[in-house]
Design a protein that fits this description.
403 residues; Alpha-Beta Plaits; TIM Barrel; 2 domains; 5-stranded antiparallel sheet; 14 helices; 16 strands; 40% helix; elongated
Length: 403
């Protein structure tokens, strides 16, 4: 431990046998560690050093920051400080930092506070000076979680994921689409695509169940944290065809407070060939008070079949790049996008483009007037919802350049 850190820690501990500490836990490091391979040690050193400096800038010079396992411990020199408020502010800055870092943007940050014995804290600080420290458990006040079981990654296993949605007009992250993934060959792939291509046997209704459960949980967590986000859900035609499933979906939405229901945006998948059935299903869902999206095949502009339904967003799923050297959309695609935006606006709706995998397509579609975007060209999918925060087009360019 360097002399300055040691003296600050000694001053913070003076006359105190135990004390309030803050803890920042980085969730998702394991996956990043696997992807980084041999580069992990270099990435971790660089990122942890930068994150430590960021935390120190947010605190007073007398406060102490210590690396602790997959995160940091913070000792506040002023025992009367408003711990929770200060930790929440730092956690927001950390999330912004990791979101803009090409190697770490899939990370989530959990903040908590608790009591720790002064002797144990000193020992932890001593170990951190010599080697990467082991986590010292903190008796948490706000959050209590058991150690999660190891995730099932066998073929066909499903896990909850979120796809951040970017508002290209206001240049902010506007919410997250709940998008379960299915493990195939040790890789998590988009559940809908796996089902469509029959890579492994997977049930569309099971995908919907997981998407709704994860989406409801994420929204309620954001409500409790007083930072309500928006959750985008899709319901497959196979699920909606079951009367029992349909009634359960409607019951779940109706049971929510009105302000929570309005934070959902819902669309139907697997109904693009029959617009009248899609409009009928969306009209029934819309009576619960959720927002509605209608997705059409790429290039389809006619939205007149939805004139009697209050649609918030009309959208397309983006075509895959035609080759590895894609330079964006063809001229006729750009023209179609502009006409699509005009048709949606005539019904008082905005537009979205999902599954955008090409930065040139993102720019062309935004220039054409599309407002909302999701896909790896914007922000990669993640297992924890992305926080609502500013994200400029320049930030996205920088991320791609750094990668």
């Amino acid at each position: 431990m360097n002399a300055d850190l040691k003296s600050r820690l000694k001053a913070a501990l003076a006359g105190r046998s135990d004390l309030d500490v803050g803890q920042f836990k980085l969730v998702g490091l394991g996956e990043i560690r696997e992807q980084a391979g041999e580069a992990w040690a270099r990435i971790k050193t660089r990122v942890f050093t930068a994150a430590t400096q960021l935390i120190e800038r947010e605190l007073s010079p007398a406060d102490v920051v210590l690396p602790a396992g997959d995160g940091f411990l913070v000792v506040l020199a002023d025992p009367a400080a408003a711990v929770t408020e200060r930790l929440d502010a730092v956690a927001r800055r950390l999330r912004e930092f990791f979101l803009g870092h090409p190697d770490m943007k899939g990370l989530a940050v959990e903040a908590s506070s608790g009591r720790l014995d002064a002797g144990a804290l000193t020992a932890l600080a001593d170990r951190s000076a010599a080697a990467p420290p082991a986590d010292k458990p903190v008796e948490r006040r706000q959050v209590s979680r058991s150690t999660p079981a190891e995730e099932d990654r066998s073929d066909g296993a499903m896990s909850a994921w979120f796809r951040p949605v970017w508002d290209g007009k206001n240049q902010v992250i506007a919410g997250n689409a709940s998008r379960p993934k299915v493990w195939v060959g040790g890789r998590p792939l988009d559940g809908r695509r796996v089902a469509e291509t029959r890579m492994v046997p997977v049930d569309q209704t099971a995908i919907d169940h997981l998407a709704q459960t994860a989406g409801f949980d994420a929204l309620m967590r954001s409500v409790r944290a007083k930072s309500q986000t928006q959750i985008y859900l899709s319901i497959h035609a196979e699920t909606w065809a079951s009367r029992e499933e349909r009634e359960e979906i409607l019951r779940r939405f109706n049971a929510l407070p009105e302000n929570v229901r309005s934070a959902f945006r819902v669309r139907m998948d697997g109904m693009t060939e029959d617009v009248s059935n899609m409009a009928k299903a969306l009209d029934e869902i819309g009576r619960t008070g959720v927002g509605l999206m209608a997705e059409l095949p790429f290039g389809e502009i006619d939205v007149t079949g939805f004139e009697d339904v209050e649609i918030d967003l009309f959208g397309w799923r983006c075509k895959p790049p035609s080759n590895a050297n894609s330079s964006g959309l063809m001229d006729h695609d750009t023209t179609a996008l502009k006409r699509f935006v005009a048709a949606a606006a005539a019904q008082g709706a905005d537009t979205y483009l999902q599954d955008v995998r090409d930065l040139y397509v993102l720019k062309s579609a935004r220039d054409a007037g599309i407002r909302y975007f999701s896909g790896q060209a914007v922000i990669t999918d993640r297992q924890i919802p992305a926080p609502n925060q500013a994200l400029s087009m320049m930030d996205i360019y920088r991320t791609h350049k750094a990668a």
